[in-house]
Specification:
This protein has helices at residues 4-14, 18-37, 44-53, 68-75, 80-88, 102-123, 134-142, 152-162, 166-178. It is globular. It is an all-alpha fold.
């Protein structure tokens, strides 16, 4: 099992831009929240590592996203569960590795959603998720040119994979992001 420090070092080896590093930390924290919430508390650290490393290859190899990361992780002898989980969030986009475990479905669902919620929060006077409400996110969700890089289709499909209503996914992800200091 990879330690948090080892995962952090690997992340920083392939990611230098603060935006990508922050996104990795946000997704990691949200994944840890969902591990606890969904009854996988004993795997919280693993879920967090999956969140931290899910975009490992995106900054350096955007055309090979979720493909190059598998190669990098296998070269380092990392756990196949970690490799499958991180790659599965590219399902239907860059890879045909379908999210199977609830953790993989959560990653698929929250990756794009954390970006959308973060963009909505920045527009608020507080610039925070602490006072962010579902209706604000839903309004921006419907405004397709707002945070256009955040795929509404992927977010919706992720909620469906989890068997959740979209509103529930958004609400829980807001709550998860509230656990992150300075969000």
């Amino acid at each position: 099992m990879m330690t948090r420090a080892e995962a952090e070092n690997l992340l920083q080896e392939f990611n230098k831009e603060s935006f990508h590093l922050q996104h990795a930390h946000v997704v990691s924290a949200v994944m840890e929240y969902f591990a606890e919430k969904l009854g996988y508390g004993e795997e919280k650290e693993f879920w967090g590592t999956v969140g931290l490393l899910h975009d490992l290859d995106f900054e350096m190899y955007p055309e090979e996203h979720c493909i190059k990361s598998q190669e990098i992780m296998r070269e380092r002898g990392l756990d196949e569960r970690l490799i499958h989980a991180t790659a599965s969030h590219g399902y239907g986009l860059t890879v045909d590795i379908e999210p199977e475990h609830e953790m993989e479905k959560a990653l698929y669902a929250v990756d794009e959603l954390t970006g959308l919620i973060g963009a909505v929060a920045i527009m608020r006077p507080s610039k925070s998720v602490q006072d962010l409400e579902l209706k604000s996110v839903k309004k921006k969700f419907k405004t397709l040119n707002f945070a256009a890089g955040c795929s509404r289709e992927v977010i919706s499909k992720g909620a469906e994979m989890l068997g959740w209503e979209l509103d529930h996914l958004i609400e829980e992800t807001i709550l998860a992001m509230r656990t992150i200091p300075n969000m």
